Amino acid sequence: MKFTCNQVNLTKALNTVSKAVSSRTTIPTLKGILMEVNENTLTLTASDMDLTIETSIEVEDTEKGSIVVPAKLFNEIIRKMPHDNIKIENEGFNVNIKCLTSNSSVLGSDAEEFPYIKNPEENTKEIVFNRNTFSNMIKKTSFAASIDQTKGPITGVLVEVLPEELKMIAIDGFRMAVTKENISGGKEESIIISARIMDEINKIITENDRNNDSEIKILIDKKNATIYLDNTKISTRLIAGEFVKYRDIIPKEYKLSVSVNKKYLTEAVERASILSEGKNNLIKMSIKENVMTITSRSEEGGAMEDILIHKTGDDLDIGFNSRFLLNIMRVIEDEEIKMEFNTGLSPCMIKPLEGDSYEYLILPVRISNM
Question: Which of 17, 62, 115, 342 is geometrically suited to a Cys-Cys bond with 46, CB 3.0 to 4.6 A?
Fold first, then answer.
């Protein structure tokens, strides 16, 4: 195997596939990256068996061949090479790397030992989205998925496709995120993809080209989803099982509705959270007339702050985990938001003032003597 390519292009490609390199595995080859040269194309592949990423770049002065290189070490060497053309070739399992006056070598392994990654089945379903829409929806939902790997389906993001609508839903038992975008020509489909993998997909989208408004294509079979993005292919196992019936969780009515400036609320909660109490990061909201008072208390001190609001309904005192509340606030782009309540022990809904492009549910924390 032999090829020459630009250092910057190779570094970007390695950064992309490295997201799938297994950090905990008993299979040594999964700690590496498969490099394959065919004509004027270098294909890089990494996999942890749940997530596989493959990307290609154009190269020159080639000789066909393949080898697995140690991911962490090889990536670090390439990243620190001069920004010029790099020449790479192997002699047996020894991989030589040359750039200007710099010379390095690493010991690779047999490409035949790299696990075979099967292509999507013939009877796949295809769905196509705008890549920036898909990226933004991941950002607005994946944080709310459970991190407890024993929780099965709710460790993932539910992707629901309807003829004119795309939804993503995540839930962890304390909060829920629902985002919706209008689409056209959608085919009805419902899949669950690991939130961790959705975050990696989002990183690849944003790192490759933040201004690219092109499409992302997903092929779905019974057990897997394969995502095509420019010269990159991302394959992942779908999470099996039935997702929570999230529509049943959303309150059908409310006794109190508040509209509030999101920036002012976020900043007030951030300040209060510095002195919030215990593992629940407890803050208290007292809603009376047209003022929301946010308070917190700890052994080291306390905080209190008033925010002007527009209120319809009953007065209310309610407590929240400030971290959970801030996670939601930081992904909302609207200047004003609506918060809907029933009692101090029932869920709060956070919505846009108009429309239904997102819905966030957050459970309260019981408050005492605050």
Answer: 17
Domain ranges in the chain?
2-113, 125-247, 252-362
Strand-pairing partners, residue 191, are 159
| CATH no. of 2-113 | 3.10.150.10
Distance CA(174)–CA(135), nearest Å, equals 24
Would you say the CATH fold of 252-362 matches that of 125-247?
yes
Q: What fold does the segment set 125-247 form as a domain? A: DNA Polymerase III; Chain A, domain 2 (3.10.150)
pLDDT tens-digit series, residues 8-51? 999 999 999 999 998 777 788 899 999 999 999 999 999 998 89
Q: How far is the CA of 198 from the CAs of 122, 138, 155, in angstroms? A: 24, 7, 11
Helix 7-17 to helix 71-79 angle, to the nearest 10 degrees? 150
How far apart are alpha carbons 242 and 152 in whole angstroms? 9
Given a contact cutoff of 8 angstroms between Cβ atoms, the answer to whether 166 and 133 are in contact is: yes
DSSP structural state of residue 321? E
pLDDT tens per residue, range 224-251:
999 998 899 999 999 999 999 999 999 9
Cβ-in-10-Å burial (0-12, 13-18, 19+) of 127 comes to: buried
* pTM, 2 dp: 0.90
- Cα–Cα distance for residue pair 265/5, rounded to 1 Å: 50
What residue spans of the chain are helical by DSSP H? Answer: 7-17, 71-79, 131-141, 195-208, 262-273, 322-329
- The domain covering 252-362 belongs, at the CATH homologous superfamily level, to DNA Polymerase III, subunit A, domain 2 (3.10.150.10)
- Tell me the C-alpha distance between 22 and 318, whole Å: 43
- d(CA 115, CA 25) in angstroms, rounded, equals 13
Write the pLDDT tens digit of every residue in 86-124.
Answer: 999 999 999 999 999 999 999 999 999 898 777 766 668
Q: Backbone phi, then psi, for 7, in 5-degree steps?
A: -60, -40
Residue 291 neighbours by CB distance under 10 Å? 12
Q: How far apart are CA 370 and CA 291, in angstroms?
A: 18
How confident is the model at residue 268, as a pLDDT? 96
What is the token pair recorded at 368?
A: 């005492």
